[in-house]
Design goal:
heterodimer, A: Rossmann fold, 5 domains, four-stranded parallel sheet, 28% helix, B: Rossmann fold, two-stranded antiparallel ribbon, 21% strand
Chain lengths: 697, 322
C-alpha cells in the first residue's frame, strides 16, 4: 500500500498530533479555580474521574484517528501494482517456454498453447507499463536471458515475438534468480512477472520453495483449472500372438481426477504404428472408481515383425509430469532355433523332431524354426535368436554353453531337453548353472515303473496361463517312464508341470534378461508319452509365445521427451510414424536437438562403442506424447502456492492508467466512510459522556 | 421618592442590593422592600388578634365587653383575643471562608462586606447577611426580640436579642464588619449561643452547610435538647448548584483544602449527584429534629428567604397559642 500523494498522508499523520497538542496546551493554560464545595468535588472526582479519563482518552484517540483517516483519504492510497503503473519500473519478464508450455492452454482455447497464453500475458504486462519503464526478457528453458541490458517495452515485445517453446524442462527457479539479479543492478524499482501454465512439468519439482526475490514477483497463471480429463497411465501387452494367432491383446489403464465420481466411459484407441491399424475399446469407470482398464485386441499382420502400439484417449491429460518412461515388448523376427543334429535314423523320433512337429504341426502354419548343430554354436551364432531349444545338451561344448548363457542373459528364451541317449558327457552341471544358483541335476536317470502320472492340479504358471482351464484334462493321459531329477530352491525354479509325487516335470527360471525352461523328461515315447498326447503342441507353442513375453528384451518407450537410452545419437522414424520421415538428432546428454518433435515410434541409432547389451536391445523409442496435443496435469493450488512461497494472483492485469485513480478513489471512499463512522462514534461517545442540563435545586 | 415605582422584588434582587455599597443603606433598602412587600399582609401591625365571643360571666373585665353586640341583642358577650406573643429570634450567619464564594459580578469600589471586597462578587456571605438584615428588620417590626451572630470556628461577633429601636442598627453594623475566614463549626457556635440563651428561641442558621454534617447534627441535637426551634437556610451560589463550567483546571479550596485537578465536563453528573445527596442528608438530619432545610440560590432574590421566615413564624405563633 502506498499513496498517490504521500505528503498528504504525512500531513494527515502529523495532524493526528494536533488534538494531543491542543489537549496538552489547554491543560497547561488553565488557571486554578477557587471553589467552596471541595469535598463534594473530591467525591465526584473519585467516582468518575478515572472512568472519565479513559473515556476522554478514547475521545482523543477517535479524534486523532479521524484526522489520520481524512489525511489518508486525501492522500489517495493505492496498491503497489497500481502505483507501479504510474511510476517507471524495470520489469523482469520470465516466460515459461519449457516443453510443457507446448500443451494447450485451456480446453476453451483450442489451438492456443500455454506458451502463447503466457507470452500474451507478458505482452499485456509490458503494454501496461508507464512511460520510461524498461524490460528484461528471460525464459525458463534454453537460453534464459534474452536481453543483456534492460530494453524499452517495444523492443521487449519484439523479442518475445521471436521466442518459441523448447523441448526441455523448465528452469523457473534459475530464471527468476537471474531476473532478480538483473533487477538488483538497477536503481529504478523492479518488478518480476512470471508467466506460466504451472503444469507439473513446468515447475522445478526438485526445489521445495521458489526463493524469495528482492523485486516484487507477480504470478501470471495462464493454466486452466479444468480437471475433467482422464489420463493414460499404463499400457501392457498381454499376449504374444503375431506368429501364431495373428492378434495381440493390450490392456490400457486410464485414470481420472478424484473429483469425478460418476459412471463414465472413455473411448481408448490403440494404433499399431507399423500398419496404422487402430482398434477401439472403452475404459469404463464404475461409480466412485478413479481407475479403469480398456482391453484392446488388435489383429496384426504376421509378415510385419516389429510392432509398436500407441494408445490414445480424447484430450489426454499427461499424468504426473512431462517426463515418464515405460517399457514395451517387441517381437522376434527370427525362427525358433532347434539345436540338434540332423538325424533320420531314429525309429521313435528324436526330441527335436517331436518338438519341431509341435512347433509347426502343419507346414507353413505355426512357429517357424530352423535346425542348428550344437557343435556349430560359436560366438555370434545365436545373435538375433530369441527362442533356442537345446535338444542335445550333451553335444554342446564349453563355448556353446557360454554362448547360450550369453544369449539368455541378453534376452533369449532357452528350452533345455535332457538327452535321450546315454552319454558320458557331463551336460548336467552347465545346464544346472544355466538354470541358476543352487540348482542341481542328478546324473542318474530315474526309471519309473509303473510310469508316473502328472498331478491333476498343476501349479499356475505364466507359460501355461492360456491353457490353464484345460490343463487338468490335458495332463491326465501323460505318463512318465524316465526322467532326470532337478533340484533347486523355489526362489530360482518355478514349476510349470509337476508329476504326481511332486517332482517337477517342467521348470522355469530367469537369467539376466532371458528365460530358461527345462523338461525333466525327454519328449520321446521311451521316456514319456508327453509328445504323443494332445498337450504337447499347445505346451510347446505356449512355451515359446509366453516365454518370449517374459523376456526383458523390449525397447524403451520415452514418453514426453525424456532422456533417451545411453549412446543414442539419432532417432530414425520407423514405418507408421505419424509425421514425416526426418530423423531427430540427439545430443550427448540424451535430449533431442531442435524444436520440431515427431511423435511416433523411432529407432534409436546408437553410437559405436556402446555396450553390447544396449546394442542387442531393439532400441525402439516411442515418442508417443505430442506435447501440443496433450493436456498436462495442473499442480494443485496448495502445492503451487507452497512452491512459489506466495499466493498466485489473478492473471488479469488492469492495464488502464485510470485503474490507479479508480483504485485509489475506491480506497479513499472507504477511508472517508471509516472517518464518518469515527465521527459518529465520537459524537455518540461525546454525548454519552456529556452531563445533562443541571436541574434546579 | 427615589425608589417610587419600584417593586419589592426589585429591591430584594441581588443585582440591586449589590449596587448599594454601604451595608447599612443596603439593609435599609432591604427593610423598605420588605415593608412595601408586606403592605397588604394581614399581620401588619397586628400583635393581638380577635379570636371569638364568649358570654359574660361574673368577674370578667368589662373592658372586653362587645357593646355593639349588647346594643343589638341586649346580651353581654366578651371578646376573646389571641394571646400576645413575643418571638425570640437568633440569626446565626456562617462567616467561614467558604462563604466568600460567589460568581455574580458587582461593580468594583462599592464597598460592601469583607467578602464582597475580597472577591469582587456577590458572595454567599453577602446574600446571607442581606437576608439576615432583612429578617432582623422584619422581626423587629413584629416586636420580636432578635439577635444576630456571625460565626466560623467560633462566634466572631454577636448582637444580643433585643426588640429595641437601635437593635437593627447594631445588627447591621455587626453583619457588615465581620471578616470571612476559617471553617464553620456549627456545634461551637451554637454552644456559645446557647450559653447566652434562656428563653425558647427560633434559631435561623444561614450557611452553605458544606462542612462536616456530623458537626451540624451535633449542633441541631443541642438545640432540640434545649427545646429551641431552628431554620436552616442553605446559601449556595448558582455555580455551586449547577457546576455550569466547562473547564479542565486545578480547583483549590477556600478553606485550605488541597488542590484538585478537575474536568468539570466529566464529573458534572457525579458532582450534582453528590450535591443532591449532601443536601438531602442535611435535610434528613434537620427533619429528624423537627426542623427543615431550605436551599437558596444566591443569584436569586432574598424575598423567598423572608417568606420562609414569615411562614415559619406564623406556624410557631399559632402552635404556641394552641
Amino acid at each position: 500500500m502506498t499513496f498517490i500523494s504521500p505528503w498528504l498522508a504525512v500531513a494527515g499523520a502529523a495532524a493526528m498530533a494536533l488534538p494531543i497538542l491542543i489537549h496538552l496546551f489547554l491543560r497547561r493554560r488553565q488557571k486554578p479555580i477557587e471553589w467552596a464545595a471541595m469535598e463534594l468535588l473530591r467525591r465526584a472526582v473519585q467516582q468518575s474521574q478515572r472512568a472519565r479519563r479513559v473515556e476522554r482518552w478514547m475521545l482523543l484517540v477517535l479524534r486523532c484517528l479521524l484526522l489520520l483517516l481524512v489525511g489518508l483519504a486525501i492522500a489517495r492510497p493505492a496498491t503497489m501494482s497500481t502505483i507501479a503503473q504510474n511510476q517507471p519500473v524495470v520489469l523482469g519478464i520470465v516466460l515459461d517456454n519449457g516443453v510443457a508450455s507446448r500443451a494447450a492452454a485451456s480446453p476453451a482455447t483450442p489451438g492456443q498453447s500455454a506458451f502463447d497464453a503466457a507470452r500474451a500475458a507478458c505482452i499485456e504486462s509490458i503494454r501496461a507499463l508507464p512511460g520510461g519503464s524498461l524490460v528484461h526478457v528471460l525464459t525458463t528453458s534454453g537460453t534464459i536471458e534474452h536481453t543483456s541490458e534492460a530494453v524499452d517495452p517495444d523492443r521487449a515485445v519484439a523479442i518475445l515475438g521471436t521466442l518459441a517453446p523448447t523441448n526441455e524442462p523448465s528452469r523457473v527457479r534459475e530464471a527468476v534468480d537471474r531476473a532478480d539479479d538483473a533487477l538488483r543492478r538497477t536503481t529504478m524499482p523492479g518488478r518480476i512477472v512470471l508467466a506460466s501454465s504451472f503444469s507439473r512439468g513446468a515447475i522445478d519439482t526438485e526445489a521445495q520453495v521458489l526463493p524469495a526475490t528482492k523485486a516484487t514477483l507477480e504470478i501470471r497463471d495462464v493454466g486452466s483449472d479444468d480437471q475433467g480429463t482422464a489420463a493414460i497411465v499404463s499400457m501392457v501387452q498381454r499376449t504374444l500372438g503375431p506368429q501364431s494367432t495373428g492378434s495381440v491383446t493390450v490392456d490400457v489403464t486410464v485414470t481420472r481426477p478424484s473429483h469425478e465420481q460418476a459412471r463414465r466411459s472413455i473411448p481408448v484407441t490403440v494404433t499399431d504404428v507399423m500398419t496404422d491399424r487402430s482398434t477401439k475399446a472403452d475404459a469404463v469407470f464404475v461409480e466412485g472408481s478413479q481407475r479403469a482398464v480398456a482391453t484392446v485386441t488388435l489383429v496384426v499382420d504376421p509378415s510385419v515383425t516389429e510392432h509398436g502400439w500407441l494408445a490414445s484417449i480424447p484430450a489426454d491429460r499427461q499424468p504426473a509430469d512431462d517426463l515418464r518412461s515405460a517399457t514395451i515388448s517387441t517381437l522376434s523376427a527370427d525362427p525358433v532355433l532347434v539345436l540338434d543334429r540332423e538325424r533320420l535314423d531314429v525309429d521313435e523320433g528324436s526330441s527335436a523332431q517331436w518338438i519341431e512337429r509341435a512347433l509347426e504341426p502343419v507346414a507353413g502354419m505355426g512357429l517357424p524354426h530352423r535346425r542348428m548343430d550344437p557343435s556349430e554354436v560359436r560366438t555370434g551364432a545365436l545373435k538375433g535368436s530369441t527362442a533356442i531349444i537345446i535338444c542335445r545338451p550333451e553335444l554342446l561344448d564349453a563355448t556353446g554353453w557360454a554362448e547360450c548363457t550369453a544369449a539368455c542373459e541378453s534376452g533369449a528364451l532357452l528350452v533345455v531337453v535332457p538327452p535321450t541317449e546315454d552319454t558320458f558327457v557331463e551336460w548336467q552341471d552347465p545346464c544346472a548353472a544355466l538354470l541358476g544358483p543352487g540348482v542341481t541335476i542328478r546324473r542318474e536317470v530315474m526309471d519309473h515303473d509303473p510310469p508316473r502320472r502328472l498331478q491333476p492340479q498343476q501349479p499356475a504358471s505364466p507359460i501355461t496361463q492360456l491353457i490353464a482351464s484345460e490343463l487338468t484334462d490335458l495332463v491326465a493321459p501323460v505318463e512318465v517312464s524316465r526322467s532326470v531329477v532337478i533340484d533347486g530352491p523355489s526362489t530360482t525354479l518355478s514349476p510349470i508341470l509337476t508329476m504326481a509325487d511332486g517332482s517337477p516335470l517342467m521348470v522355469l527360471s530367469t537369467r539376466g534378461r532371458g528365460v530358461v525352461v527345462m523338461l525333466a523328461s525327454a519328449p520321446v515315447p521311451s521316456w514319456s508319452t508327453l509328445a504323443t498326447k494332445p498337450i504337447f503342441v499347445p505346451l510347446v507353442q505356449e512355451t515359446i509365445r509366453q516365454g518370449e513375453v517374459l523376456l526383458d528384451a523390449g525397447g524403451s518407450v520415452t514418453i514426453g521427451l525424456g532422456r533417451l537410452p545411453e549412446g543414442t545419437t539419432e532417432l530414425r522414424p520407423v514405418r507408421g510414424s505419424t509425421t514425416g520421415e526426418a530423423s531427430l538428432t540427439v545430443d550427448p546428454s540424451g535430449m533431442i536437438v531442435g524444436d520440431e518433435v515427431q511423435p511416433g515410434i523411432m529407432q534409436a541409432i546408437q553410437a559405436q562403442g556402446t555396450s553390447a547389451e544396449s546394442l542387442r536391445s531393439p532400441s525402439l523409442v516411442a515418442l508417443n506424447v505430442d506435447p501440443a496435443a496433450c493436456d498436462p496435469q495442473r499442480n494443485d493450488a496448495a502445492r503451487l502456492t507452497a512452491w512459489l512461497n506466495q499466493t498466485i494472483t489473478a492473471p488479469t492485469v488492469e492495464a488502464s492508467t485510470d485503474t490507479t485513480a479508480r483504485s485509489s478513489t475506491r480506497a479513499s471512499v472507504w477511508l472517508l466512510l471509516a472517518a464518518a463512522v469515527v465521527i459518529l462514534a465520537e459524537t455518540l461517545l461525546g454525548r454519552m459522556f456529556s452531563v445533562p442540563e443541571p436541574s434546579s435545586t | 421618592m427615589a425608589n417610587q415605582g419600584l417593586r419589592a422584588e426589585q429591591y430584594l434582587s441581588p443585582e440591586t442590593l449589590a449596587q448599594l455599597a454601604p451595608f447599612e443603606l443596603r439593609a435599609k433598602m432591604v427593610a423598605d422592600g420588605v415593608m412595601n412587600g408586606m403592605h397588604q399582609s394581614p399581620l401588619q401591625g397586628m400583635a393581638v388578634e380577635f379570636a371569638a365571643h364568649r358570654q359574660y360571666s361574673a368577674g370578667d373585665s368589662i373592658r372586653h365587653l362587645d357593646w355593639k353586640v349588647f346594643g343589638r341583642s341586649d346580651k353581654l358577650y366578651v371578646k376573646e383575643y389571641r394571646q400576645e406573643t413575643n418571638l425570640d429570634v437568633m440569626i446565626l450567619v456562617d462567616g467561614s471562608a467558604s462563604m466568600s464564594f460567589g460568581t455574580l459580578g458587582v461593580k468594583q469600589g462599592w464597598g460592601g462586606t469583607d467578602a464582597t471586597r475580597r472577591r469582587g462578587a456577590w458572595t454567599k456571605f453577602d446574600h446571607a447577611t442581606a437576608s439576615a438584615a432583612a429578617l432582623a428588620f422584619l422581626c423587629l417590626s413584629q416586636r420580636d426580640r432578635v439577635g444576630v451572630a456571625v460565626g466560623a470556628d467560633g462566634l466572631r461577633g454577636a448582637v444580643r436579642k433585643s426588640a429595641t429601636r437601635d437593635q437593627w442598627r447594631s445588627i447591621v453594623r455587626c453583619l457588615s464588619s465581620e471578616p470571612v475566614e476559617a471553617r464553620f463549626s456549627p456545634a461551637a457556635c451554637i454552644n456559645q449561643l446557647l450559653a447566652q440563651t434562656s428563653h425558647r428561641t427560633l434559631f435561623v442558621i444561614l450557611s452553605d452547610f458544606l462542612g462536616d454534617p456530623e458537626g451540624l447534627r451535633s449542633a441541631l441535637a443541642r438545640l432540640r435538647h434545649r427545646g429551641h426551634d431552628a431554620m436552616l437556610l442553605a446559601m449556595l451560589d448558582h455555580r455551586e448548584l449547577t457546576l455550569d463550567l466547562d473547564v479542565e483546571a486545578p480547583f483549590i479550596g477556600l478553606e485550605g483544602e488541597d488542590a484538585l485537578d478537575v474536568d468539570t465536563r466529566t464529573i458534572r453528573k457525579a458532582y450534582l449527584a453528590e450535591l443532591q445527596r449532601h443536601l438531602q442528608g442535611i435535610d434528613r438530619q434537620a427533619r429528624a429534629f423537627g426542623y427543615d432545610l431550605q436551599v437558596f440560590d444566591t443569584h436569586e432574590s432574598v424575598g423567598p428567604v423572608l417568606a420562609a421566615l414569615l411562614s415559619r413564624r406564623e406556624g410557631m405563633v399559632a402552635g404556641g397559642r394552641r
